[in-house]
Amino acid sequence: MSFVDSAVKDIDSRLRELQEEVAKLQAARAALTGARRGPGRPRGSRSSSAPARRGRRPGRPRGRRGGNTRANQALDLVRKQPGITIPQIAEGMGIEPNYLYRVMPKLVSDGLVRRDGQGWHPASA
Description:
50% of the residues lie in helices and 6% in strands. It has helices at 3-33, 70-80, 86-93, 97-109, and strands at residues 113-116, 119-122. By secondary structure, the protein is mostly helical. The mean pLDDT is 80.
């Protein structure tokens, strides 16, 4: 193997390592900020023996289920404390706030809450 071939091989190997590190750092940043990580996992990150999942699991309903779901818990807190913020809701529920950044817009689209600045209010108020 020539020097050039060896150097190219070393560079390619290092680039793969750096790409994996970038993906890990982006995922960590997204977890801290509640933002989306990106379009998906990098190629080759899933073990080849694990089957790929397509669509939703059979028998599982779509959207919010009835009963005491997280969305209903968040709605209860908003009704009890109009103007409450997502970090306060998360603290009251004992969960991470990033989950609520998906739940609250769904409650808005259902017409149950409205947003005023950083605070959330019942839609009927």
